[in-house]
Amino acid sequence: MVMKWIKRIYAGLIFIFLYAPIAVLVVFSFNDAKSTAKWEGFTFKWYRTLLENDYIMKSLYYTILIAVIASLLATVIGTFAAFGIHYAKQWRQKLIMNINSIPILNPDIVTGISLMTLFLWMGLERGFITMLLAHMTFCIPYVILSVLPKMKQMPADVLEAAMDLGATPWMAFKKVILPEISPGIISGALIAFTLSIDDFVISFFTAGNGVTNLSIAIYSMARRGIKPEINALSTLMFITILILLIAINKRTSNIEEL
Amino acid sequence: MLKKLSSGPYWLWSFIFIVVPIMLIIAFSFSVPGEAFKFSLDNYKRFMEPVYLKVLARSVKIAVEATLICLAVGYPMAMILARMHLKYRTIAVMLLVVPMWMNFLLRTYAWMTILNKNGILNHILSFFGLPQMTFLYSEGAVLLGMVYNFLPFMVLPIYTVLTKMDNSLIEAAEDLGANRRTVFRKVTFPLSLPGVLSGVSMVFMPAVSTFVISDLLYGGQYMLVGNLIQQQFLVVNDWHFGSAISMLLMVMILITMSIMNRLGQDGVEQGGGNIW
Amino acid sequence: MTDRIVNGINVSKVYNGVAVVKDIDFWVKKNQFLTILGPSGCGKTTTLRMIAGFEQPTSGQVMFEGVDITAVPPYKRAINTVFQKYALFPHLNIYENIAFGLRIKKLNEKEIEKRVARMLELVNLKGFEKRKVHSLSGGQQQRIAIARALVNEPKVLLLDEPLGALDLKLRKEMQIELKNMQRELGITFIYVTHDQEEALTMSDKIIIMNQGEIQQTGSPTDIYNEPENAFVADFIGESNIFDGIMPADCRVIFADREFECVDSGFQTNESVDVVIRPEDVTLSKPEEGALTGEVISVVFKGVHYEMLIRESARTWMVHNTVMAPEGTKVGLSVMPNDIHIMHKEG
Predict the structure, then answer these.
(1) What CATH number is given to the structural domain containing A135?
(2) Model pTM?
(3) Minimal Cα distance from B172: which residue of C?
(4) Tag placement on chain B: N or C end, fewer CB within 10 Å?
């Protein structure tokens, strides 16, 4: 019995530790003062200032735009790459998988500065395109890693079997391979999307020219001190995450029930 | 044909955007500013100066501390979660994951508002009549920020290994005379090592290379290796020296990773919690 | 009483409101080979786990050598278990697996080495000390699991369907080896299985369980020859079970005819189950049998033929070394002492 309560209190303390900072942000996003210590009355004004803040709104736009384009392109390139890698000779497979793991294993800061160096060396000015290329570069490896296991689970020679039955290679790919590996493709695309939305370090080194994402905007504002708009932004993001998670949970439990 | 063509674009892509950048960093690190490339070890020699070695030592020390704290705090949490009734477990694990979905910078920023001179913590202190303290802009604040951000990375892989563990192994140990503590020491912990190792590397790697946490919770000084690299590239504009430091960081992490892998393979072949 | 090494008294176990074991009494004597036999979900494994100490009875007591051990944790019981899926420690090699219990007892290395070597010899796996668990076959892992338990010299060894994962041939070999080991070492074995043949070959005493209750306790021959109810009869070997009525002692009516039998003590005209073993049915020419039927299927079972015979509204299963082809009309007869009469259940 005592053990049970110790466990409950321990888990409770951990959850308090994890959620207290978020709770503070949420509460003070409604505080009618700049301070984050004293409660001075309820207000929505920080939400208005947030929505009127062009810098944040523009960075939100770029965050989503980049995430959509980067995850889509990364999924296409990654899926085809996984298909080719699966059927490639052993040494080629090993080589490309090792290269593929570099962006995953390398600290973000090293990936960031190395891409920045590359863009400078190529004479590309940092901006939307460079940030998109960078995001695709760190997204593709994850797509490959989530598609490849599905390829491996497929029975051997299905492609040959399909072609033997008269399908062209492209038809065989579309009709046989794609349906088999689609769960891997979807989870790869989702990983790519969340990574892109969340990225700060690599974007920080590869964006420029007025193009920023939300993380960079938060960083540059936070460095200059406490901004109540950021509290409002956190609250909105936290609510979005909660709604998304609940929706996903509902959907998966619905699927399980079927 | 399709088989060969389909990975073609990625071969090209990974060459241009993964291989070439690394080569450039290597080239930069072994040369000095000037028109033509000239091989030089100056950048690495420069890093051996005490100022920089101190930064490296501080980075490693604080990352190791953060990792150990995460392990000490996270392991019991993982055990509690793994032994929870299934009904509550899914919710508890979700509660653990939700903060990770929050933007990393916002999570760090949250501590700025708490630890601030005018922040809520000092407010609480003065409420009890205690003297105000400076929490923010200290090593402790950075350590706290790391533990806060990376704790779930430690808990989750250990939790995964523990839930996959065959309960009859624990019963077998009890049956052979081991009490609770001995069961943990001789069976549960050794079998959970793959999870511990992947948790350790998932905490240590981002902790040793971060510049955001130290920047926001310590201030703009040369605090950690990450800040040093960032400053070399964006402020001082010494890309050669910055590249050399990046190379050292990269090598250090690759060595850590391979040690972890080796340890993991020597330990147990089954039930590994491979998160990567 | 004192020769009962393990004794369960009024033991019940309830999980989430479902009674898995219902108020059972059981015991095993020193050096006996006891088998708890029953279909899956009958509560036999739960009973074993309560003896081992992994489960606490909801009510009742477990006694060990006359002492109540109900609340004693498993690591303090002089009982060891061989698990269904072996439960060998994957992070330890074979030597360390076997030495596990000895190390906890803090025996010196020399003694440990000696005992492990003796155990490996006993299970015919000398030279496997340094091997990893996963490099061993199922049968070998099984032997190691037995060695790991026996090395602690337990007074009682519990075995939870230990041969379930092995193929038929290996299972037969292991049955004989286990029985020999038990005899040589003089250890009490409590063995759980759903395989009735296994139970009959190895045990000194069998407890048959169904739906949390003990159906019958006895020696293999008792249980085979004198099943106490239709469940036991059906579970121990295949049986023909018909509805019947007892008009008087030693008289039974079934299959539209009155037969002579050897059972008595039933109420007049009591409805009963009539159990007849397939090998106890004699086939003859139609006019010589007590009943007549037609063979509807024949399957060769290696030693005997298994025939299904339609007789009026009933189907009889008959085992015989001589075959009657499908479609043949045959006569069926049963000796009075091969007709087993049982009370209807419920």
Answers:
(1) 1.10.3720.10
(2) 0.83
(3) C87
(4) N
